[in-house]
Structures are given as structure tokens and as C-alpha cells.
Amino acid sequence: MTAHDPNQARRPNSPTTTYLYDNYDAAFVRERVSEFREQVRRRLAGATTEDEFRPFRLMNGLYLQLHAYMLRVAIPYGVLTARQMRRLAEIADKWDKGYGHFTTRQNLQFNWPKLADVPDILEALADVEMHAIQTSGNCIRNVTADHFAGVAADEHEDPRPTAEFLRQWSSLHPEFSFLPRKFKIAVSGADEDRAAIKVHDIGLRIVRGPDSEPGYQVVAGGGLGRSPFVGKLVREFLPREDLLAYLEAILRVYNRFGRRDNKYKARIKILVHETGLDQIKAEIESEFAAMDRSPFAHDAEEFARIASYFAPPPYETLPAHSATLEAAKKENRAFAAFAEVNISPHKVDGYAIVTVSLKPIGGIPGDATSAQMRALAEASEKFGFGELRVSHEQNIILPHVKKDDLHALWKMLEPAGLATANAGLLTDIISCPGLDYCSLATARSIPIAQAISRRFQDPERQRLIGKLGIKISGCINACGHHHVGAIGILGLEKKGRESYQITLGGDPSLSASIGELLGPGVSADQVADVIEHIVDFYLSERRGDERFIDTWRRLGHARFKDAVRREGEYGADI
Amino acid sequence: MALISEGRFIEDEWRHLAEEEDLPKSGKLIVSQKRLGEAVASRPLDRALGVIVANTANPAELAPYFARLSLIAVAFPAFADGRGFSLARLLRRAGFGGELRASGRIVADQAIHARQCGFDTIEIPHDLAMRQNEAQWAKALAAYSGTYQEGYGTRGSILERRRKAGS
After folding, report:
1. CA distance A55 to A58
2. Quick check: B150 and A295 in contact, CB under 8 A?
């Protein structure tokens, strides 16, 4: 890279903490907008039928929903700058109804855009190095990563360079844009898996090889939907320089042999399951061996170029302990609760990772108003180097806040309705939009989330219960990840009425498991009662600070079933 | 049928032979994979021969015929069925150097995908060509000044250009 190359991004004097587009990236995203503008024009002129248009509008993030179009904007690997967050607020005000919805895959959805406005919205996103590329469609979707990337105390390697490398590689892939079905990739580089890599089509875990060279453990064939599967290990160690080539081998096998006769059997998880793990591994390895690898010869250099953008921000040298923080906690109980629940350990002394919950009691999980987006942008500029993250739990992260500043930050978040102290607790519910918005849904999800949230609103009680993930999907497609909720709720339609199936024992982390069904479905107004019975039983049985999932694993599913059946005499029909 | 090459509608010199038709002596002919053996055995060597194959065809079974074939057409049963793109890549990898043709209801928005995967020409039904004219195909093909994937197409990926500009 030299100063003479006009296509390279001009580097600011201080090191960057996130990737910056060079002229190639910027041109690509602009050209994508022009291409889509032309595609919309041709659609409106009748040169393209709706059937022909559909895959291309989906690959630009545009869905036709129940009431209107929905635009799903990519937040690649969950990273947002303050400037980008402000732009999202502007778009919400100008072209939508003043709010947006953060999803379970590090995307943001606008629910009310008009088709004719979408090219202008995409242009407004391109201005701030954002896009809606491949947030939908049967292609490689927006690549996701650990939302604590680069700051988590338990991290071995920052997954963002890998995710950015894959973002570029997967954009407009000529061979893999018309796959049997959607294809999701997630990357994690820490002890704890916060990216749910085992329930993705491909999960990448950054590890070191025998000579401590960098690389990946590759898991494939995970996924939720109507047939949930935990991903299987296909490669114990893949050297970093082989990453793109190896992923192409997997995708080629999938593109050729994945089922296309039934959309519910078209994901790679079904191919892996029906072919058998040993056979599919052999097919991938044989394709990998047959490939011409010379085009990938310089991948290590390109990776290093990308990685160089992700420098740490200019941290101050601080003591690990903050007297200011401790004093503020003693003074203000509400703040103390927030500091106890919504803070995670940072790898740099004196700093903390703050999770801003988008799950106010009785609110819509993941929704943020434009005013809240602006408040978050401002907070990040004032207290967090102008950086934000979006988590797959539908919350916003301020990745580096000085412990000394936490109280001031809280005072700024509180009036904006952004200080709910429930990160990871029972009311931090993951929910899809459900029948209130989605054309695929068979039942409402949001009102169920709201009812549970109100039932458990007492913060003392929530803290007593501890970490407990409730996940709600409004149909079998499982966008709310109910299969991997410690308590999962699936909304179905039975004889014209909404019916909710409850599962227990799901786990999205490295110890991944799919939840087991508790019994027949219950009606919408009974869900909160049943959840309460389950939680009460857990509290009466747990040992010490045992997590819900661990109590469930120790006692077994049958004990929980029995307990709820007995309680059912008080009303719940389960 | 209309034939498109590099974003332009061109004259098609080839003719698809119907299943019930006898093999004629002259002309550039595209036969089904089922009749490939018969055609190779009976056609004089100086007569051009092409074959149309399903997108599930095994490249290894076609490779022995490469020397005799001037054209391979890959059928796209639906434009959103992307198996043909992988097959094109595999046929090129196996060493086929003749004309590679995508045949089916492919839309202008796929012009780039087809070219980058190794197709030379695209053959679409008449009604589609009426709606999506030459200007639209040319515009769609020229939509991007560069793409990221290495080893696809002949124009050099963004990654390659970055490296060359930087060295």
C-alpha cells in the first residue's frame, strides 16, 4: 500500500478502530445502489416480472411484508459508528415512522419504506459505508460475529477481520447467489461463544494450530427453522490462508447437491444430515483438493491489510478498580442494579463493556426510536470512542466505557428509556416481529413477550432468578431462535386460534442443545402463567447459583414436565 | 430463442436438434447428452458438434468428449436454480475450452454471474428477450467496475487490483 494509489482509503493520522472502505469498496456499494435503482425501474416499467424481481430485491434486503415493504439493513458483524447510527435515525425519520427494529442477526429493519424510495435509502446508507446487501435471499447472508469482539476479556482473537474478509468475499458471489436456500456464517474468537456458531450453516471458531499458526475450527450444518440441528465439526483445524478456498469448497458441494425440491429441506443442515457426516466431509475435502488454489495465494496479505484497520482505541492507563464507580453504586440503587447486570468484563483495566437493553418492560424487543438512536450515538461519542455494537440478542453495546464514566453514561441513557437493567435476565427476551408484521407468522410474538416482561418486571425477582434466556418465534421458521432458548416459545395456529408450544433446555453456546417440548400448546393468555410455574419450580430445585439450563440438565426434562402438569391444575392447559 | 454475448444480441449459428429428428450431415448442431455418443460416432470430424446437458451433469462423464465438442450448453430449468453456475466452473476446471452457453430463462441481472463463472453466451426464450432488450443486458453487465472473488472471470478481482496498485 502506498500513498500513490488513489484507490486506497486515505488513512487518518490516528489509527482506525473499524474497517474503512477504500475506493474499491465505496465504488462497489455505489454501483450496487445504481444497479438496484435500474432493477426497480425495470420492475415498475414491466420489463421484469415480480417473480424475476424477487430474488434481486431480497438480495438488497427488501421484503414484501404483511402491510408494506420491509428493508433489512446489514450491520456487518454488528459494528456501528456513531455517524452510522445517526444516519439510521435520519432514515427512520425521513422514510419510515421514526423507529427501527434490531434483529437477531445483526441487522436493522425498517418496516414502512416505499419501493420507489428504497434506492434513495440505499444511497443514504452508502454515504456512511453501509448497505443492505444479502440480508435476505438464497445467498450468503450478512456475516455475524461476537458482539464483544475486540474487547471481551475471554477473547483469543478479534473475529472482525475474518468477518470483514468474508463480507467482501461473499458480496455478489457469482457462483453462490442462487443457492438452494439461505446461508448464514458466524465467527467467534473467545472462550464463550456469543455468536451462536453451532446453529449457523457454517460456524467458524478462531483457534491456533499445532504450531500456533492462526486458523479456524469449522462447524457446518447447524440451523434452526422447522428441523433444528446443532452444527457438526467438519474441520478440526483450517489454516487461515485456506479459509476462502475451503468455504468455496463447502458452498460448491452445497450448491450442487443441496435439495431444491422442498424449501424446508433445502438448508445445508439437511444435506449434512441425509448424506452423513463422514461422507459430506469426504466430499468437501475432495472438492478442496481438486481446486486450483493459485487465485488464493495472497489471501494472507489481504487478511493482514484488513486486520490493520482494527486497532484498539487510545485507552488510558487506569487502575482496574474504580472508586468513583463504587461510590456512585452506593449512592444510587437503580444505577447499582444497572452496573451489576448490564456490565461485562473488558480486557483493558479500568474499562467496561456496557449492554444497553432494548427490552424495556412491556416494550417491543429490539425496537429503537430515532431519538434513542441519536442518544446512543451521542453516548458513544461522549463515553465510548464513537463505537457501538449490535448483539444478536437485539441489544446495543457500548464496547469501551471507562468505569469512572459509567454513572454519567447511565444518567444520559436513563431519560432516553435506555437504562433497563435486565441484560441477560428473564425479561431480556428475544422475539421475532411475529404476526403483527410478518407475512410468514402463524401467531403473534410481541404481545407474548410483553406479557412475560410485565409479569416478571420486578427487578429484584429477576436478579434472584439470574441469567435465563427466553426466546419467542411466531412461526416454525424460528427467527426468534426458540429452539435454543433455555425457555423457548413457538407460536402456531391451531383451528384458527393461536397456540404456543413451550420447549425447555435450549442452548445456543458451545454446549449447544435444542430445546425439548414441554407438552401440548397453550393459549396466548396462559403463556405467562406456565413460564411462572417453570421458573418457580427451578427456584425451588436449584443448587446455589446453578443456572436454569444446568438445573434442567441435572434433573432431566421429565421432572419439569411433571411439575408443570401438577401446576396445570391451577389453570394452564398443558 | 435469442442469443446474448458480452451484453449484445448476436446471430445464433447453432441449431438444437429435436429428440425425434435424425442427425443431419451439415450445420452446427446441439444434441442432447443422451445422443452424444451417437452423434460423435456418426458425424464427420470436421462438422461442429455441441451438447446440451442438465445442470446435474457430471463433468467427468463429459470430459472424454471435450476434444470433439465446440459447445456445451448448460440448461437452467429455472433462473433461480444456481447449479448451472457451479457446473460451468467445473467444466472450465476440467479443461473445456470451447463455447460455454447458459440456456434457459436467465435474466439480465444474472449477466455478471454467468460471465464470471465462465459462460460465453446466454440463450433465452423469445418472450423474455422482448421484455429485456439488448440495452438492459448491456447495462446489467456493465453494472460493476470490479468484483471481489478471486479466480472468477478474466478481469482481475478487486483484491488483485488492490495488491497490484499497492506493490
Report:
1. 5
2. yes
Q: Is residue A66 scored above 80 in pLDDT?
A: no
Q: Tell which residue, A202, A273, A210, has the closest CA to residue A237.
A: A210
A69-74 β-sheet, strand order? A62-64, A69-74, A107-110, A99-102, A367-369
Which CATH number is A323-416 given?
A: 3.90.480.20
- What is the overall mean pLDDT for chain A? 94
Distance (Å) of CA A422 to CA A172, A391, A457, A535 = 39, 14, 10, 16
- The distance of A128 to chain B (nearest Cα, Å) reads 20
Q: Are A447 and A528 in contact (CB under 8 A)?
A: no
Q: So what's the pLDDT on residue A4?
A: 44
A371 Cβ contact partners less than 8 Å away, ≥ 6 residues apart: A89, A416
pLDDT digits (tens, 9 = 90+) for A238-250: 999 999 999 999 9
Average pLDDT of chain B, as a whole number? 95
Q: What is the pLDDT of residues A527-544, one digit of tens each?
A: 999 999 999 999 999 999
In total, the C-beta contacts within 8 angstroms joining chain A to chain B are 129
Cβ atoms < 10 Å from Cβ of A222: 27
- Listed in sequence order, the DSSP H helices in A414-471 are 446-455, 459-465
DSSP SS3 for A145: strand
For A159-307, give the CATH class: alpha beta
A252 vs B150: CB contact, 8 Å cut-off?
A: no
Cα separation values, A55 from A154, A182, B81, Å? 40, 11, 11
CATH 3.90.480.20 for the A23-126 domain, yes or no = yes
Options 3.40.630.30, 3.90.230.10, 3.30.413.10, 3.20.20.60; CATH for A430-570 is 3.30.413.10
B77: which DSSP letter? S
The pLDDT value recorded for residue A265 is 96
pLDDT of residue A121: 97
- CA dihedral over A398, A402, A407, A408, signed as positive or negative: negative
Q: Which band of pLDDT confidence, cut at 50, 70 and 90, is reported for residue A171? A: very high
Residue B30 forms beta bridges with which residues? Answer: B16, B50
Angle of helix A557-567 relative to helix A548-555, nearest 10 degrees? 100
**Predicted complex ipTM:** 0.97
pLDDT over 60 at A9, yes or no:
no
| CB neighbour list of residue A564: distance below 8 Å, 6 or more residues apart | A518, A519, A530, A533, A534, A537, A572, A574
Residues A174, A191: Cα–Cα separation, whole Å: 35
Average pLDDT score over residue span A252-260 = 98
Residue A316: which residues within 8 A CB-CB, separation 6 or more? A350, A402
Chain B interface, best mutation among A2, A4, A255, A309, by max B CB count within 10 A:
A255
User: Nearest 5°: CA angle at A554, between A552 and A558?
Assistant: 60
Nearest-neighbour CA in chain B from A312: distance (Å): 25
Name which of B119, B95, B94, B97 is nearest B106 in CA terms: B119
Q: Convert the pLDDT of each residue in A373-416 to its tens digit.
A: 999 999 999 999 999 999 999 999 999 999 999 999 999 999 99
pLDDT band at residue B7 under the 50/70/90 scheme: very high
List of residues 6+ apart from A310 with CB closer than 8 A? A16, A17, A18, A19, A150, A158, A160, A161
Look at A27 and B159 and tell me if their CB atoms are within 8 Å: no
Strand blocks (E) in A363-486: 367-369, 387-390, 396-402, 430-431, 470-473
Query: In this complex, do B82 and A2 lie within 8 Å of one another by their Cβ atoms?
Result: no
- Residue range(s) of every CATH 3.90.480.20 domain in chain A: 23-126, 323-416
What is the location of CATH 3.30.413.10 in chain A?
159-307, 430-570
| Average pLDDT of the segment spanning B25-42 | 93
